[in-house]
Amino acid sequence: MYYSQSIEEYNISIFRLFIQRTLEGFEGYQKEISEVISEAKDLLQGKRTIYDIDKESYALVIFLKNHDANGFLNNIDPNNINNTEYKSLLGIFDIQEQYSSAECMHNY
Hints:
The chain is mainly α. The chain contains four helices and no strands. The chain has helices at 7-23, 30-44, 58-66, 83-107. The two termini are 12 Å apart.
C-alpha cells in the first residue's frame, strides 16, 4: 500500500523532528525553530501578514497560528525557549497528528 504525504505534512513532520532532537540536547535546530515561532507570533499579533512570511516555513507558521488555542505563542520568547516550552510546542503537533490519524482511519 502506498502512503502519500503532502509537502505541508512533510514539513510539519520534519519540524517535529527538530523539536524532538532539541529536547534530546542537540542545539543545531534552535535557530530554525525560533524563526518559525517568531513568524507565527508576529502573524498572530498582526505585526506580519501572510505575504511577509518566509515561503519555506509558511505551512508551519500558519499551522501554529491556527492551532494556538491556549495562547502559547503570545507568552513565548522565540529567542529564549526552554524545554517546557519545546514540549508544549511538540504537544500542539501531537494533537494534530492524532486527529489526522483518526480521520485517515475513518476515511479508510
